[in-house]
Amino acid sequence: MPRRIVVLGAGGWGTALAVVAARAGHRVTLWGRRPEHVEELRRSRRNEAYLAGITIPGEIAFASGADGALDEADGFISVIPTQHLRATLTPVAERIGGERPVLSCSKGIETGSLSRPSEILRETLGRAPVTVLSGPSHAEEVARGLPATLVAASRDEEHAVAWQKLLTGEAFRLYTSNDPLGVELGGALKNVIAIAAGLCDGLKLGDNAKAALLSRGIVEIGRLGAAVGARKQTFFGLSGIGDLLTTCYSPHGRNLRVGRELGAGRKLPEILASMKQVAEGVWTCRAARELGRKHDVPMPITEEVFAVVHQDRPAIEGLRSLMRRQPKSESEDLR
Amino acid sequence: MPRRIVVLGAGGWGTALAVVAARAGHRVTLWGRRPEHVEELRRSRRNEAYLAGITIPGEIAFASGADGALDEADGFISVIPTQHLRATLTPVAERIGGERPVLSCSKGIETGSLSRPSEILRETLGRAPVTVLSGPSHAEEVARGLPATLVAASRDEEHAVAWQKLLTGEAFRLYTSNDPLGVELGGALKNVIAIAAGLCDGLKLGDNAKAALLSRGIVEIGRLGAAVGARKQTFFGLSGIGDLLTTCYSPHGRNLRVGRELGAGRKLPEILASMKQVAEGVWTCRAARELGRKHDVPMPITEEVFAVVHQDRPAIEGLRSLMRRQPKSESEDLR
Question: How far apart are CA B218 and CA B196, in angstroms?
Answer without folding.
Answer: 12
